[in-house]
Amino acid sequence: MTSIVVTPPAGEPVTVADMRAHLRLTGPDEDAILTEFLVAARHHVERSTRRALITQAWRLYLDAWSDGRIVKLPVAPVQSVDQITVFASDGIGQTLDAGDWTLERGGEPVRLRIKPGAGGPSTGLNGVEIDFTAGYGAAESDVPASYRQAIRLLAAHWFEHREAGMDTAMASLPHGLDRLLSTVRVPLL
Q1: Domain boundaries, the chain
Q2: DSSP 71
């Protein structure tokens, strides 16, 4: 099972202006580096929690259906399953009808139940592609405050400790970040 981001988020959960205010910066001189820190911090939070914060398109590749035809999606929250394609041995894909699956959002990880007889992959590798949309929403206000705070903490830590060799820079993550994120991780598949 492999998953990739097909379409990255159009924005970030924390704006550069918000980060400037958090750091008490008065001008735009550091905006370029703040942007990089914010993107990196979002990536870190998303990977640590196995969540998509801002709306983004994902693709999951499977070799075959799992037992019971239940597929656990690798990130949460899932907004929709957009398309499921199964490939025959000749490499030609067949798109399943939306009625051939059910998205079960009741737990985490979110599960996808494929109806029996609804197409089976014939190729040995990556015979199934599942395209889905994940994230809390398109706007920064859609993202829960605890994630936005974690991003601010991490980006501020990297902003303040850019030099290697300092005792505080040696701590790769700011104090309290693990507590913010430990209760919201999606379980491993």
Answers
A1: 7-50+144-182, 56-134
A2: E
Of residues 184, 160, 186, the one with CA closest to residue 76:
186
Please give the distance of CA 44 from its chain centroid, rounded to a whole number. Answer: 10
The H-or-E segment that residue 16 falls in is helix 16-23
Of 158, 65, 79, 160, the C-alpha closest to 117 is 65
Cα dist. 111→28, 75, 99, 120 in Å? Answer: 44, 10, 15, 18
100-157 pLDDT, tens digit per residue, is 999 998 888 899 999 988 877 666 788 899 999 999 999 999 999 999 999 999 999 9
pTM for this one?
0.83
Q: Tokens 């983004």 map to which residue?
A: 56
Interatomic CA distance for residues 131 and 59, integer angstroms:
4
CA 58 – CA 79 distance, rounded (Å): 11
Q: Which numeric CATH code is attached to 7-50+144-182?
A: 1.10.3230
Please give the pLDDT value at position 32: 95
Strand-pair partners of 3: 60
